[in-house]
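A further point concerns the way the authors explain their paired sequence and structure data. The central task, working out the structure tokens from the amino acid sequence alone, is never made concrete. I therefore recommend that a typical entry be quoted early in the introduction. An entry of this sort, consisting of the sequence and the corresponding backbone structure tokens, reads as follows:
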Amino acid sequence: MSRLLSAEDLLAGAGTTRTVTIPADLVPSGGAEDGRAAEAASVVVRPLTLRDVQRIVKASREEGVLSSVLTVQQALVEPALSVEQVASLPAGIVQLLLEQVNAASGLAVSADDLEEAVRAPLARACFVLAREFGWTPAECCELTLGQVLLYLEMLAREGADGIPTGVVAPAEPGATPAPPRRAGGRASA
């Protein structure tokens, strides 16, 4: 059996740091005039806390790219950079640092986990329903499993047994029918 963590143990994780090596091909030459090739270098990052993530989400609601800049800026320990400085970094360095910060913060999804999620039957079903009816992910999340199965079955039978294209019966009494579809499976506006 694993040991029980104390509050101090849990809070100590926020103070850890990790050294990230930046490959030589991403390191700017720094204007070296002697023709020397750039060498690999390193920076120090820390994991994001829940407070950091909440601040980043709140600040970047208007501008999605800002979340990447703020994530790197909040996590960089050495050297500490301003938001403007991080925004002027080469994109490759920001991408590398984002990957490392997300991994250090426990926010990274492995390729295998992502592949498993994409292949999950319910995820695929929601993707089909969203594509066919023009529903948002939030609307798909509100469906019960029975409704998902009913709509998928109706799509499978569409046209084969006389169900008109785009007509979907409400799942519950009083429910609003799905918006009519136009050619290509998208809902009309």
Summary: The beta strands are 18-22, 41-45, 76-78.
